[in-house]
């Protein structure tokens, strides 16, 4: 009887401590924990660098709304901007690296060049998000084959865990995130496909190899 009472009191004590902790959480801290839970579900045990990312709080955004060009703000007016981060975009054909911004609103993702919107992906049409299992910051946003889209979007992000988590939560498509090994296929446009190869080397680099593939080291 004493053991049953002790176990019952222990459970009540734990429940009260959990309730006290939860009630003491700020709204910002709750958002952090919700995001980290999604990051764990997507990346834990799958991608290098995940464990190191645990101690790094996600920022609400990497750039403020007023850091965007006024012309871009005018083009996406009516949409609430949720997250902005600098990225490197690789052309789908020649794989030339270009500095861009990734802007996430409540309904769409935008790839932005200065005052221009280079590509818009509505979350409702998003087909998937791919990353490698290595420690690179590459992510591929897969889009549908239609006349509105030029092809899948190849990006390199400094904070890839944060960016992918924000994107899949806003799009409500956590299940569509894939962590791949070795290589992945991406759509170039007009029914064509390209291949990206992931490998390990002495220093990080991204280049077009002799076979025409995008190689990520």
Automatic annotation (TrEMBL):
GO cellular component: myosin complex
TH1 domain boundaries: 47-217
A GO molecular-function descriptor: cytoskeletal motor activity
One Pfam family hit: Myosin_TH1
Highest taxon, organism lineage: Eukaryota
InterPro entries: Myosin_TH1 (IPR010926)
Protein name in the entry: MYO1H protein
Species of origin: Rhadina sibilatrix
Lineage: Eukaryota, Metazoa, Chordata, Craniata, Vertebrata
